[in-house]
Amino acid sequence: MKLKRLLIAGAALALTAFPAAAGALSFWHAYAGQQDKIDFITFALDEFARKHPDITLDVVAAEQSAYKTKLNTAMASGNPPDVFYTLPGGFLNAFVKGGQMYALDADLAKDGWRESFLESAIAQTMKDGKTYAVPVDVDSVVFWYDKALFAEKGWTVPKTYDELMALAEKAKEEGLVPFSLGNKDSWPATFWFQYMEMRLKGSGVVASFVNGDAGATLGAEGEKAFQTIAEIAQKDYFPIGFNGMSDQEANMLFLNGQAAMLLNGTWQIGASADAPEGFELGYFAFPSVSGGAGDQSDVLAGVAASFGISEKAENKADAVTLLKFLTSPEVMTKYVELRKTMVTVKGATTEAAAGPVLYGISNELMNAAGHLDSFYDTAMPPAATNIYYTTLQGVLDGSVAPADGAKRLEDALKANK
C-alpha cells in the first residue's frame, strides 16, 4: 500500500504538519477516533492503493474538532492539502471566497459523475453556480420512539402537530418526559425551530440569506416558530434542566424509557445500539402543521461531509481520480454498511447495507420529500450560527421573547458574517 503516512488514531493524535513526500498527493480526512470511521477509511484507502498503484498518497487524519482547526490553519497559511475532507455550507464557503477551492464542474460533467449524486445533496456543495466539493454522506432528522412502549400504551404515531401535542400530554400524564432534549451544546434544539419554520414558511429560508437574496426573510413565521417551541418548554414537555443537559444524557433518558420521543438525526440508530432488551427503535416524520405554507413532506437533511480539491493542487487529474473512487457506488455502499449512514450517491444506500430502519427513512421519507433542507447552523456563517445558538437557548429558557429572538436571528443572517 503506497501510503507515505497513515495517521489514524484517537484523541491524542499528533497534529504536526509534515511536508508531503515528493510526487505524493496529500490527502487529509477527519475519519479518526471512532471505530466505524476508521474501518471505512481503511477499507477505502486499501482499495484505492490496490486499484491505483501509480498514485501515491500522503495521508493525514484527525478527529473532527481537531481537524477543523488544523485545516483552517493550513488554509490560512497558504499550505493546503491537495484533497481534503470539508464541511459544506459556511465552512466550505469561506475557502471558496478566498479563491482556495478548485471548481469541479468540468470533471463532474464527464462520464455521468454528476448524475450519480442526489441533486439535493450536490446543491449543498455549490456556491454561485459552481461546485467546489463532492458530497459524501447525508443525515436527516426524524422523531424516534420505542415501538414496544407505544404498543404497551396503545399510542399511535402522530400525523399532525396537534396530534403530536396531544400525545405529549398523554406521555406527561403517564409520568414520562414527552420529548427528550439535551441542549447543553445548543445544536439539538435547532431541529425544533427549523422544522417549525419549514412547515410554516417552507424550505430554503436560510439558504436565501446565505445566497444574498435581497428579499430573504424569516417572515412572521420565524416569530411563530420561536413562540411554538417556547410553549413546548413552558408546558414542561422537555426534561427538567434541558438547556444544561448533554445530548448523551438526553439519549439515556430516551433509551431507558423515561422519555417517550426524541427529535434527532439518523445517527440515533448507532446511538441506540446499547438500548435495553425489548427496546425497538421506530421513527416517524415531523408532523404536518395546519395552515403551514411549506411543503409538509419536506425533510430536514443535510450533507454531513464532503471532499474537495485545493486550487493549489499540482496534480488535479490524480486528485479527481481519488474523489471519483471515494464516491463510487462500491465505496459508498461499504460506507453505509460500516457506518449505518445514508450516502449521497444514488442507489448506494441499499437495504442490505443500511438495515431496515435507515433504509426505511431513505426510501420512505427522503425519496418522497418535496425538498431536503440543509441544517441551518451548518449553512450559516460562523457569527450567525453563534447568535442562532444563544437565541434558541434564551427563547427556550424564557429570557428572550420570541419576537426579539426572530429579529436577532434575522439581523445576524442579513449581516452574513
Automatic annotation (TrEMBL):
Pfam families noted in UniProt: SBP_bac_1 (PF01547)
Keywords: Periplasm, Signal
Compartment list: Periplasm
Signal peptide extent: 1-22
Coiled-coil blocks: none
Entry keyword annotation includes Signal: yes
Positions of transmembrane segments: none
SUPFAM superfamilies linked to this entry: Periplasmic binding protein-like II (SSF53850)
Keyword Nuclease: no
Main location per the UniProt record: periplasm
Family membership noted in the UniProt record: Belongs to the bacterial solute-binding protein 1 family.
Protein name according to UniProt: ABC transporter substrate-binding protein
